[in-house]
Specification:
The structure holds 2 protein chains of 2 kinds. In chain A, about 40% of the residues lie in helices and about 25% in strands. Chain A is of the alpha/beta class. Chain A has a single domain, classed as Rossmann fold, CATH 3.40.50. Chain A has a 5-stranded parallel β-sheet with strand order 2-1-3-6-7, sandwiched between helices. A two-stranded antiparallel ribbon of chain A has the order 4-5. In chain A, helix 3 (about 65-70) runs parallel beside helix 4 (about 90-95). Chain B folds into 3 domains: about 1-165, 2-Layer Sandwich (Beta-Lactamase), CATH 3.30.450.20; about 170-240, Helix Hairpins (Orthogonal Bundle), CATH 1.10.287; about 250-395, Heat Shock Protein 90. By secondary structure, chain B is of the alpha+beta class. The radius of gyration of chain B is 32 Å and the shape is elongated. In chain B, the strands form 3 sheets. In chain B, strands 2-1-5-4-3 form a 5-stranded antiparallel β-sheet, sandwiched between helices. A 5-stranded mixed β-sheet of chain B has the order 7-9-10-12-11, with helices on one face. The chains are: A alpha/beta, B alpha+beta. The interface between A and B is medium-sized, with 21 and 23 residues.
Chain lengths: ~120, ~400
């Protein structure tokens, strides 16, 4: 069954968020890879995740730019992207950047899991 | 503006007096032999008037606020010298403009011109405006002006505009907004991790069957949610101020939303029992989360302000046009004279010595959300008996 695990890439500049999301998703049976944002695009090409959870506001990198770039390239445009941010206007920003969905921080565990399930079970 | 009027009055008085004396004198004696006493009197008055004029002129011209007189067409007929210090243009340069708002960028010009047109319709009225203008040095400055329509006042026959540079204040305001917005974001990040860790623990203890730990962590989760809402309020209030509150419309079933919120809030209290009588039976187009935020706020207030009574009743009604929600508690209530103030920012029920928590922002933000949905919010309350908070919103609202 191991090889059937869905792969989720989490990009956030806050290590504690990365740890928490990893704990939640690994407990739920996902394979998780994390990145602090700077090398996100390189990571995606190498790791080929089934879903990307992308923070909007990262030091050194703008989540919106990463999202737009990924959605513009043939090799990555099929990967669903869910944007995460503490900004209340996450929904609007996510839509403008071409993301598939959004989660506002702080999120409920159930909400995060149902979102991940929705985009990895296709 | 008062100065200008006073100045005109003094001048007019002087001319009338001078005429009167001369007329009186000319009747009795030939013009070239004006009575010495009268002549001395005229000299005395002339000097007085000159003094008075110099004083009022100095007050007008040395004032840190600039003053301009403008015709109904918007043409500047007078501008005090302070104008040069303010906008870089001399009064003469200002008079050459088609109208003084020409220096404002298009959006600001539109809004200030609208205010000016409104002012022209009501003689004697005063309007305030805040807008940017292009300083001669090419930079925008923020101007705050008070415009008074004295076109019908024979002594002035102009619109009097007092204006000042408020760029510094505007900068501070925007720095404050930026600061709160960044601070909110920074506060939310650790809260997100704490909430996450608590939920992971709750989940793991649940799997182990440790119900005691699960219950404690559930309580911790409720407290974290409260903290999150407080942080959210701080951000919202700066957004209301900046007109930046955003809404994401969708169509939702009103009663279902109310039920969801009641279920959520019931978990935060063991003492209170929330009864529901829901009969709106309508779909509403609006921001579900924001309307939910209002209901949450009303329920948490009802809980907070009824420490000795456990019953809270939520009622909804609906028709083809709108839905109404009522949250009734049997708590401390609101004093009659404070009823209108509850929707103001920083208002908190009870005396300052009382220990009711809260930032005093909830109802202010709630009423703003309801207003922006085209609805309204109000309260019925008897001190010591309890309160009934209501809001009504239309099923759909353009904007």
């Amino acid at each position: 069954m191991l090889h059937n695990k869905k792969k989720v890439l989490v990009a956030d500049d806050e290590p504690s968020i990365l740890e928490v999301v990893t704990l939640i998703l690994e407990d739920a049976g996902y394979e998780v890879e994390t990145t602090v944002g700077v090398d996100t695009e390189k990571h995606i090409r190498k790791y080929r995740p089934d879903l990307i959870l992308l923070d909007i506001w990262m030091s050194g990198m703008d989540g919106r730019t990463i999202c737009k770039d990924l959605k513009a390239q043939k090799t990555t445009m099929h990967i669903p992207i869910v944007m995460i941010s503490a900004n209340k206007d996450t929904e609007k920003i996510a839509k403008e950047a071409g993301a598939d969905d959004f989660i506002a921080k702080p999120f409920e565990l159930k909400h995060l899991l149902s979102m991940v399930k929705k985009y990895t079970s296709a | 503006m008062i100065l200008m009027v006073a100045l005109s009055c003094v001048t007019i008085d002087f001319f009338m007096l001078k005429k009167k004396i001369l007329r009186k004198s000319s009747k009795k004696v030939p013009k070239d032999t004006v009575h010495l006493k009268d002549k001395a009197h005229i000299n005395f008055l002339t000097e007085k008037i000159a003094q008075s004029e110099a004083r009022f002129r100095a007050l007008t011209e040395k004032s840190s606020d600039a003053i301009a007189l403008v015709t109904s067409k918007g043409k500047v007929v007078y501008a005090s010298p302070t104008t040069k210090a303010l906008m870089g243009y001399t009064p003469e340069e200002l008079k050459k403009l088609r109208n003084p708002f020409e220096l404002a960028p298009p959006d600001d010009r539109k809004s200030v011109t609208k205010i000016f047109s409104k002012l022209l319709k009501e003689p004697g009225s005063t309007e305030h405006a805040v807008y940017r203008v292009l300083h001669k040095n090419g930079k925008h400055i923020w101007i705050e002006s008070a415009m008074t329509n004295l076109l019908n006042d024979p002594n002035v026959e102009a619109v009097v505009i007092n204006y000042r540079d408020i760029s510094e204040r505007k900068l501070l305001e925007s720095q404050k907004e930026d600061f709160i917005s960044i601070a909110t974001h920074e506060l939310k990040t650790p809260v997100t991790s704490i909430k996450g860790y608590a939920q992971v623990l709750q989940d793991r203890f649940g799997k182990e069957g440790n119900t005691k730990a699960v219950a404690l962590l559930a309580k911790m989760n409720v407290q974290i949610t409260k903290l999150t809402n407080l942080i959210g309020d701080l951000l919202d209030v700066t957004k209301v101020d900046g007109g930046l509150l955003q809404f994401h419309k969708s169509s939702f079933n009103f009663d279902v939303l109310v039920t969801d919120i009641i279920d959520e809030m019931q978990m935060t209290t063991t003492k209170h029992q929330i009864e529901k009588k829901l009969a709106a039976a309508q779909k509403v187009t609006g921001d579900r989360d924001r309307v939910g935020q209002v209901i949450t706020n009303l329920l948490s207030n009802a809980i907070r302000y009824s420490p000795h009574n456990k019953k809270i009743i939520v009622t909804t009604l609906g028709n083809k046009k709108d839905v109404t929600l009522r949250v009734q508690d049997f708590g401390i209530g609101i004093q009659q004279e404070k009823k209108d103030k509850v929707f103001e920012r920083f208002f908190r029920a009870g005396n300052s010595e009382d220990t009711f928590a809260g930032l005093g922002l909830g109802l202010f933000i709630s009423s703003e959300i309801i207003k922006r949905h085209g609805g309204r919010m109000w309260v019925d309350s008897v001190e010591g008996k309890g309160s009934k908070f209501y809001f009504v919103i239309p099923l759909t609202h353009a904007s």
